[in-house]
Amino acid sequence: MLCKDDGIELAGLCQCLHDLTFGGRSTVVFDSRLGKQDRMEEKKKTEYDLRKDADIIMRRAIQDVQPDQAVKKALEEVELPRGKVIVVALGKAAWQMAKAAKDILKERISAGVVITKYGHAKGSIEPFRIFEAGHPVPDENSFLATEYAADLVRDLTKQDVVIMLISGGGSSLFEIPLCTETELKDMTGQLLACGADITEMNIIRKRLSAVKGGKFALLCYPAQVFSVVLSDILGDPLDMIASGPAYPDSSTVEMCREVVEKYGLVLTENVKGLLEKETPKACENVTTVITGSVKELCDSAMRTCRELGYEPFVLTSCLNCVAREAGTFLGAIAKQYQDSKKSLAFLAGGETVVQLTGSGLGGRNQELALSAAEAIRGMENVAIFSFGSDGTDGPTDAAGGFVDGDTFDRLKEAGCRISSVLAQNDSYHALEKCGGLIKTGPTGTNVNDLSCILIR
Fold first, then answer.
1. Does domain 68-291 have CATH number 3.40.50.10180?
2. Which CATH superfamily is domain 10-64+295-455 in?
3. Residue 184: which residues within 8 A CB-CB, separation 6 or more?
4. Quick one: which H or E segment has residue 59?
5. Closest Cα partner for 288 from 109, 84, 101, 78?
6. How far, in Å, CA of 169 to CA of 120, rounded?
């Protein structure tokens, strides 16, 4: 649902948007008497301002969804038993969450482990052992790290507690496979390539794992498990975030069959057998607190847009479609409102998917942004950007992409046809050529993606 601030009914908002439109551009008005150089300088100023605004919006949004304070608040309310305190942090935000736990629990932590993506650890934290592992495809370090975590929680008593700090990316990073490594990598590759969304992927992955779908919580029994979860999935389904290692699974064998049929997945006999087995439907030793979500990301961006002089509108915090389609749609919105009398910002939070048709390099946010470039071609007061809150987009070092009215022609001059680039899924190299890559580095959080249209 389209909503502004605290919410205006759709019909009223559409009228509001219509009233803002068709009154001339608000920031740059070209005088026919201006020379070519003057016009070029004005144009560059607008482009610079839009990119600068985008950087401010991104930086503040990422800062506002850091997990530190939420983790500390959750742990301050926990009554720790007399026994051991074991901390297991997993996911792209694992290091940041473990650091927050250490700050509040201090020497009370008996042992701990951090399992995060390569490049996301920021140093040692005593008494944690820190692992970096493969994402989005698990690797040997994923298995070694998870075995270490499993060893920590074996043979615990009722007097002990396991604190789990869970963030997105854990499905790949936290794994003890029930199938062979080759089978697991093949299934992961098929799911990534076919365009399955994260929930569909996790329905399959839970059944191929000894720790997903509530199974890790059962390993901890009879110790109590207290989970703090940073959500990276729309609707915050606790059994799907990181494939729910400490939460009972709501999916069924029938749902699993539907995913297999929908995407025509090719299964070995071993995998077929595993997918026919049910997962735990109860975890009686677990208490869960959820913190952080894409809605907070959108709320922060809305506040910053308003401070920068834009009239902000949240289109949705549940964007869930193919990246190219989302980019085309956002481009159409920009085209509709390019002549607004006021500066406007349209925000969309969520997570799109990429359908692999080529062998290039890129990610869903880069592909979304590049897909919008043709629709805003020639517009001098419009930009569209999209980024992942974790700082990584696909198997690249970029967080996302930024395009403006000149992107299409700059790429054309460089010999790049956007349609061909998208067919090859090579958005990274195209955006690199036109200065459109967004690079933040690992951010320490992970609450989905944010896409934004800026109209000055």
1. yes
2. MOFRL domain (3.40.1480.10)
3. 138, 175, 177, 208
4. helix 36-64
5. 78
6. 12
